[in-house]
Description:
Blueprint: H1 6-11, H2 18-30, H3 35-45, H4 51-63, E1 67-71, E2 77-81, E3 87-91, E4 97-100, H5 109-112, E5 124-128, H6 131-136
Parallel strand pairs: 3-5
Antiparallel strand pairs: 1-2, 3-4
The structure holds zinc ion (ZN) (2 copies).
Amino acid sequence: MSMINSTAIQACGLKATxxxxxxxxxxxxxxxxxxxxxxxxxxxxxxxxxxxxxxxxIDALLAAGLIREVGIVRGKHVFEIAKEDHIHFICxxxxxxxxxxxxxxxxxxxxxxxxxxxxxxxxxxIYGICNSCKNET
Length: 137
Ligand SMILES: [Zn+2]
Ligand SMILES: [Zn+2]
């Protein structure tokens, strides 16, 4: 079931351009995707698109809260469709990012005590070696 359509984009105050729809489609399909992978995928269907345009659209989609950025190993980021707070398992070997639904609401205050500001979203990453990488050795 796709959450991404023109109506969802317009509801966030953005124009639903073909480029935006294509970018969102590929982010949704991949689950988590880097800017390079996204550019490759989008360019296959929309050869005239430039990397600068992809970046501009990513910025607009981030600002509108439709997608979010996940911080990954060595400063690399991937993008995903915004959804409820969840936990990422990130494989240090193959870079695969897996969404894990927490058993209960993620409350950072339970780890840290009172926060020095208002919480907007929580990002929690667990790094390790995924089972398929583990089985290869
Ligand atoms: Zn792996
Ligand atoms: Zn995720």
